[in-house]
Design a protein that fits this description.
alpha/beta; Rossmann fold; 2 domains; eight-stranded mixed beta sheet; 14 strands; binds succinic acid
Length: about 325
């Protein structure tokens, strides 16, 4: 959700591995942090203008250091620069590039100092900018995406596609790319293919529009929605059999990001053409389908196959029987 158009996103750079360089591309540990400037970090992101969607970028090099050497004077300067930019009405949010080692401390300090009603998003990298596959450009792009999301306020950290809150974020691993955790609290959300998915869906309507129908209608007349799974050698005859028996909806747990065995897919497309409502979910126990299949409609809210069956059954209450 992006409320106003043509706003500004401010990037404040402080150094860290995200701006680090090594002599060899294979060297992930023997590098020097805080070498590249903020413009060089931004230049390494080809998709940046797409992500900005008309917003302008303003960048500032606040300091250039290894965050193990972070100090109170730098914190004061950083808080002042944040306060300056946050007070501008056309600033949508701030991204701060930071070393991973003390990122969690800076996050909490800024939260306590600013209590921002706009997003202040810290990001970082575990590999230097010279690595064969640096993680910094994607993390920075993701952080900019989060800073533009109108749902956000407060200080957050974005690393490896996960969004953490300032209170809970902690560096938990000295080497791997996904080095941060929010512990028991879990991440506040995820950035997937340029879209933010929030863990808290409190804003979603949780009473189905057809709930009253389910109170009033005899259960024998509730729509029949079946669950199927895509798997090795999946057999289309189960779809044909269900359709012949009068099924009104099918929810399919596809493989991975909602892919479907080709023989099952052909049968499901045929079933749809015959008026059966088909919804797609994933067999994966975590995450949800990113993007839309050309052939089948994805179930809403990232629901599991079993919960998607309930939602589809309620959705069909109006159309199936009267
Ligand atoms: C630093 O914290 O500045 C160096 C380590 C890192 O960014 O991963």
């Amino acid at each position: 959700m992006y409320a106003k158009k043509n706003q500004k996103v401010v990037v404040l750079a402080t150094g860290g591995t995200i701006a680090g360089t090594a002599t060899h591309a294979s060297d992930h540990t023997g590098y020097t942090a805080g070498q590249l400037n903020v413009q060089q970090l931004l230049d390494a992101i080809p998709a940046l203008s797409d992500a900005l969607q008309g917003d302008a970028l303003v960048c500032e090099q606040v300091v250039q250091l290894d965050s193990k050497d972070m100090d109170h004077a730098t914190w004061q300067t950083l808080a002042q620069r944040c306060a300056h930019w946050l007070s501008q009405s056309d600033v949508r949010g701030i991204v701060i590039t930071h070393g991973t080692d003390t990122l969690e401390e800076t996050a909490w300090f800024l939260q306590m100092m600013l209590g921002p009603t706009k997003p202040v998003v810290l990001t970082c990298a575990m590999r230097p900018a010279t690595a064969l596959m640096p993680d910094g450009p994607q993390n920075l792009l993701d952080a900019i995406t989060v800073a533009r999301d109108a749902m956000v306020h407060g200080v957050l950290a974005v690393c490896a596609g996960r969004i953490h809150g300032a209170r809970d974020v902690q560096k938990v691993h000295p080497y791997r790319l996904d080095a941060f955790s929010s512990g028991d609290a879990g991440p506040r959300g995820w950035v997937e293919q340029g879209r933010v998915r929030w863990a808290d869906l409190g804003g979603w309507p949780m009473v189905h529009a057809n709930a009253q129908q389910a109170f009033d209608r005899p259960v024998a007349q509730w729509p029949w929605v079946a669950v199927l799974h895509s798997h090795t050698n999946a057999d289309p005859r189960q779809v044909h059999a269900l359709v012949a028996a009068g099924v009104q909806g099918i929810v399919l747990a596809g493989t991975g990001n909602g892919t479907v065995h080709h023989s099952l897919l052909a049968a499901l497309i045929q079933a749809q053409a015959q008026g059966v409502a088909v919804r797609l979910t994933t067999r994966c126990g975590e995450g949800q389908i990113v993007g839309q299949s050309a052939d089948l409609q994805t179930a809403p809210l990232g629901l599991s196959v079993y919960k998607a069956r309930i939602s589809l059954m309620l959705t069909l209450m109006t159309s199936s029987l009267s």
